[in-house]
Amino acid sequence: MTTLAIHNPASGAKIAEVPADDAASVAAKALAARAAQPVWAAAPLEMRKACVLRFRAAVVAELEALAATMTSETGKPIAMSRNELNGLLGRIDFFLAEVDASTATQTVFAEGGMTEQIQHIPLGVVANISAWNYPWFVGCNVILPALLTGNAVLYKPSEYATLTGLNIVRLLHAAGVPTDVLIALVGGGAVGAALQAQRIDGLFFTGSYATGAKIAQALGPRMVKLQLELGGKDPTYVCDDAQVQNAAASLADGAMYNTGQSCCSVERIYVHAQIFDAFVAAFVDTVHGFKVGEPMADDTYIGAITRSAQLDVLDAQVADAVAKGATLLTGGKRLPGNSYAPTVLVGVDHSMDLMREESFGPIIGIQKVASDAEAVALMNDTRYGLTAGVFTPDEQRARALLAQVNAGSVYWNCCDRVSPRLPWSGHGDSGVGLTLSTYGIQTFTRPKAWHLREA
């Protein structure tokens, strides 16, 4: 039997070994989901909602244990694991509140005996290849609206968050979702490839651009609906009139929260020359207050790097920046427990990988700019386009600047924020499609047009 070993990234200790899938089991599970989906779709929406509501109650009841599991396998600080689970509750509430109106049949024309309607029908069997950095958020952004709208789901959690993925499936099964309607697939890249080979009606992936591009190349000719949430190199501009202390505190948290392992982490900061020195001093002072430590400790802010290979990326970005003239103000080194010291560099520019390639760690470059125009040009000098922000007390100025920036989400005087009420999408290599909002419910349906003429 094939198995998957799961290790604690902070200690390296093996914490579990679970049965894994292979090509044959993936194919069998896909057939089972295909057979089960029509019955699930035919069930009343109220029944499907009741299952999700029971799931919510189970998350609340087991929150501490679920948080501990997530921390043990990802290295996320335990306080942030609790935050993620508590934040999930609001997303569940949003999906439950909005699914009826989002999927109701709409009459768009009725005149002279002719009626035109739009019906929202399930896609069918949805494949979800999920991520490890926010496994409850990212997984449930797909699983819950997909189930509510009548789809069956083949769910492959990241191999770095498998136990959390299995908990999601366990709790949904206990809440009443049939076992063949939501099926977990356990394993790494080979299992994901086997899943892509099945007869599926949609594939929802969160991960790197490189993997997303391969998925698009494989599934594009088959006309399978794709939602690819990929990387980001998210910029923020701090204007000359910004409140320095507030901006520095907010952006330090936005760059380092979850150990910088967020697709919407602040990854580039541009600061107007008039306040540059004051901002950098306040920023570094804030970063010095972040405790690096054991992820299970309540006061740890910087935990483990989940994938040890990312430490090489961070080392390389620091070395490249320094070799090209950047100044390292703090950090720039590995720490015990698979951690990386919170790192701040100045004197950076766009010749450096630090300012162009996703870091996915507690590291940031801060660049001085002379004008709003220069800031906007630099913010748009990227192949990504996930989020972007501006700090200024002037809302009109912020809106004018952010209107010029290519990003799926924009922030005024805040950052690193996701709302269930707003669509989550991106430009360029940040991906295609969306989750969240009412659009993120409807994305799991296909509109069926009805032309009805009275005899």
- State the major sheet: 7 strands, mixed
Mean pLDDT: 97
Number of DSSP E strands: 20
Percent in strands: 15-25%
- So how many helices? 14
Which term fits the overall shape? globular
Class from helix and strand fractions: alpha/beta
Give the distance, in angstroms, between the N- and C-terminal Cα atoms. Answer: 62 Å
How are the strands of the largest sheet arranged?
12-15-16-11-10-17-18
Helix content: 40-55%
Description:
With 455 residues, the chain is an alpha/beta fold. It is 40% helix and 22% strand. The protein is built from 14 helices and 20 strands. It has helices at residues 23-42, 45-61, 63-74, 78-103, 135-148, 162-174, 189-196, 209-219, 244-256, 276-288, 309-323, 372-379, 395-402, 437-442; strands spanning 3-7, 14-19, 106-111, 114-122, 125-129, 152-156, 182-184, 202-206, 225-229, 234-238, 266-272, 327-330, 334-335, 339-340, 343-346, 363-369, 387-391, 409-412, 431-432, 445-453. The strands form five sheets. A seven-stranded mixed β-sheet has the order 12-15-16-11-10-17-18, sandwiched between helices. Strands 7-6-5-8-9-19 form a six-stranded mixed β-sheet, with helices on both faces. The longest helix is centred in the first third of the chain and has 26 residues, at 78-103. The radius of gyration is 23 Å and the shape is globular. The protein starts with a strand and ends with a strand. The model has no long low-confidence stretch (mean pLDDT 97).
